[in-house]
């Protein structure tokens, strides 16, 4: 069984027609799955359903064997990390360091552990030099690495990234690629929604193509080696 499983899922925003139509899908940690397709085909909506951020009107979304409907956001966050198309949406604290420490402090994690984890995350995501910076003054690539570091702190088993290469120059893309490869080597499952063909070609072992709220192609190259 997949780590994330959608079964006969329909989803509509409010009273509109279904945006995602009768979709069934299994996603595995061993894969690097790319979701591609034209604008408005439902990729982001599908990603948010997979991450338990949206709830389907019909059908079920299972995360690690549990119906996402019965899971708290905290329980979901330990399993699935979601990087928004615009990482600013998930940054709240007055400094980079606090962005990483406050979720752990709220959970009552021991101070020494909080400091160690924040330090480690800043090193992995190459933002240690920005520890005291105000997050909204960071560049797009730095904001994205901070958002990823904040996800990393929860040690998720699966990551869903919405258009992670948007606004990144070639060098920053190489940095991001290295970070995602590290996640992969640690066994973290990965779904990337992307228009970036070169990026998909470099990373994906499975490509899912959406059109009009449905999956029209699902191709596997191979599991990662
Ligand atoms: N919050 C919302 N409320 C109402 N309709 C929405 C909302 N978000 C998306 N939609 C609609 O749902 C459809 C699918 O949008 P979605 O963002 O999932 O597609 P996408 O394939 O990710 O597009 P893009 O490549 O442009 O990001 C579109 O018609 C869009 O207008």
Automatic annotation (TrEMBL):
The UniProt record lists the keyword Nucleotide-binding: yes
GO MF annotations, alphabetized: ATP binding; ATP hydrolysis activity; ATPase-coupled transmembrane transporter activity
Signal sequence, start to end: none
GO cellular component terms, A-Z: ATP-binding cassette (ABC) transporter complex
Localization (cell): Cell membrane
Family from the record: Belongs to the ABC transporter superfamily.
Membrane topology qualifier: Peripheral membrane protein
One Pfam family named in its UniProt record: ABC_tran
Organismal lineage: Bacteria, Bacillati, Bacillota, Clostridia, Eubacteriales
InterPro entries: AAA+_ATPase, ABC_transporter-like_ATP-bd, ABC_transporter-like_CS, ABC_transpr_CbiO/EcfA_su, ECF_ABC_transporter_ATP-bd, P-loop_NTPase
Protein name: ABC-type cobalt transport system, ATpase component
Species of provenance: Clostridium aceticum
């Amino acid at each position: 069984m997949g780590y994330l499983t959608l079964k006969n899922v329909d989803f509509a925003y409010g009273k509109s027609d279904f945006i995602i139509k009768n979709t069934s899908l299994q996603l595995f940690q061993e894969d690097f799955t790319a979701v591609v397709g034209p604008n408005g085909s439902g990729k982001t909506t599908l990603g948010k359903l997979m991450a338990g951020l949206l709830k389907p009107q019909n059908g079920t979304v299972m995360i690690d064997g549990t119906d996402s409907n019965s899971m708290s956001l905290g329980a979901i966050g330990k399993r699935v990390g979601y990087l928004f198309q615009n990482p600013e949406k998930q940054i709240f604290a007055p400094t980079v360091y606090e962005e990483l420490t406050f979720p752990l402090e709220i959970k009552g994690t021991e101070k020494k552990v909080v400091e160690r984890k924040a330090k480690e995350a800043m090193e992995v995501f190459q933002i240690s030099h920005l520890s005291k910076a105000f997050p909204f003054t960071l560049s797009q690539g730095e904001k994205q690495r901070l958002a990823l570091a904040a996800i990393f702190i929860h040690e998720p088993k699966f990551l869903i990234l919405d258009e992670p290469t948007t606004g990144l120059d070639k060098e920053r893309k190489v940095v991001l690629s290295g970070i995602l490869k590290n996640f992969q080597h640690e066994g973290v499952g990965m779904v990337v929604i992307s228009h970036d063909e070169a990026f998909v070609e470099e990373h994906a072992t499975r490509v899912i193509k959406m059109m009009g709220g449905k999956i029209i192609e699902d191709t596997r190259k191979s599991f990662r080696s």
